[in-house]
Amino acid sequence: MEIDQIDRRILAVLQKSGRMSNADLAEKVHLSASACHRRVQRLEKEGIIRDYVALLDPRKMGRPTTVFVEITLSGQADEVLDAFEKAVARVPDVLECHLMAGTADYLLKVVAGDTEDFARIHRKYLATLPGVAQLQSSFALRTVRQTTALAV
Q1: Spatial CA neighbour of 92 closest among 113, 106, 70
Q2: Class of 65-139 per CATH?
Q3: 139 pLDDT band (50/70/90 cuts)?
Q4: pTM for this one?
Q5: I want to staple 69 with a disulfide (CB 3.0 to 4.6 A). Which of 33, 83, 106, 108 is the partner?
Q6: Which tens digit of pLDDT belongs to each residue from 55-111?
Q7: Strand ranges in 41-105 using DSSP code E only, listed in sequence order
Q8: Where in the chain is the domain with CATH 1.10.10.10?
Q9: CA 129 to CA 134: how far, in whole Å?
């Protein structure tokens, strides 16, 4: 599917304000409401718009501590990777998990209340993940830039 400039404008606006009414969106991108609605439906159907979510403030939710955890597994066999990925998907404090190229096999983004809470998460979940040979945790001191919006 080809994305034109109008689609890009729609996507840019929706990434910043996903709860906007179709009429307001159409006005912002200079389309009729019906044409705008058809385009949004097409972008959803094609999977370009994957979902609509509410983004929560971690601090206000009592989770101000962000920790990046590098995980090295004991092996690279498919069954080791699959077992790890299934288990890590069930850890509620893991916001992101990425299979990496480089020294670590996986990079996790974990949120916690504080260092004691992270110690609990580490003991209860991370240290018990299948196939884990080594964990390296780095605490974020400050978030300089964070966005969910892709450049369109």
Answers
A1: 113
A2: alpha beta
A3: very high
A4: 0.90
A5: 108
A6: 999 999 999 999 999 999 999 999 999 999 999 999 999 999 999 999 999 999 999
A7: 65-73, 94-99
A8: 5-45
A9: 11
Query: CA quadruple 125, 128, 131, 132: dihedral positive or negative?
Result: positive
Q: Which residues contact 94 (CB under 8 A, 6 or more apart)?
A: 88, 108, 109, 110, 125
What the block records as the tokens of 112 is 């916690």
Integer Cα distance of 65 and 49 in angstroms: 30
Sequence-distant (≥ 6) Cβ neighbours of residue 20 within 8 angstroms: 13, 14, 28
Mean pLDDT in the chain?
Answer: 96
Separation CA 135–CA 104 (nearest Å): 9
Sign, CA dihedral 66-150-53-1, equals negative
